[in-house]
histidine kinase
Amino acid sequence: MSLLHAADGLAALAAVVVYLYFASKSTAPQWAELQLALLIGVPLAVRRQWPLAVFVVVVLAQNVATVLQITLEMYLPSAYAAYALGLLVPRRRSLPVLVGALPVTAVALVVGQPWPDDVGLVGAVSVILVASWALGRANRVNRAHRARAERERAERTVEAERRRIARELHDVVAHSLSLIAVKTGTANHVCADLPEVARDALVVAERTSRDTLVEMRRLLGVLRDEDHAAERAPMPGLADLPALVGAARDAGVDVELAAGAPELPDAVGRTVYRLVQESITNVVKHAAPASCRVTIALVDGVAVVEVVDDGPGAPDPLPQGHGLVGMRERVAVYGGALETGNRPEGGFRVRAEVPLG
């Protein structure tokens, strides 16, 4: 903004100098020369602070200078002020002021200028003033449109982030609560006959609940301004797959990680982790005890994730719960493909292709 104010200051100085020169060539009273030059030029320096008042003062001063036959140009200072009027003042206030200034200016031109073509002169000055105001108005509207577009883009970004957090929370809660439910159920059934097994199951449930609280605190932390260490912790990725597999084994699902995790971009790695997590969660909820095989490979720039189990399979038609919908949304972000369904030999299969590009 400092450059814009400097430009206004230079314009004000130039207008004062020019009108002092005009006054020296005219027969106007000496008392009026300096005052009119200052009234025409100086207000332009503050046209952004008081655009309406500046326009009124400059136009009236130019009209007086015209009547005294000092003005020798096409009302450029008034046009400079008219642009700020259209740019900074709402139309319901600026337009009446502009319309009121036009006839006053026309009378001053007819009275003060000894030119034979009064109509042409009045028309030219009117066009200049109206065009300057219209240009400022158009710029104001354009700025408002850009600001609205920025707000809408920010709102879409916030909404997308909320959806992402909702998916993350679903994955965390569904996986962890499924595991906790399985282990506490096991402890409840064997606590009398196999207290050691029950104790081990409760230890797993306790550890899982604590880990879940940490991850939920990290996810919800993005909605708060507090700066906790848990909120700064990285989101889970491929490096966390062994821990995920271990937790599933504790829940009674024998998970085999058939291939080492390939080198993937962080965002794709997080997506792959969530796909595997949701698939294993479904096995824990619907097929345990069962065996499960997880394969992750990189083929021609596409991360291929496959999770198969030997459980009883899914009912037909397959229910489209939040988990499967969330997986489809995650894959769709990258323009990939997701296939889910029962295997002919038994069990259930999830296969996702996530392009790295």
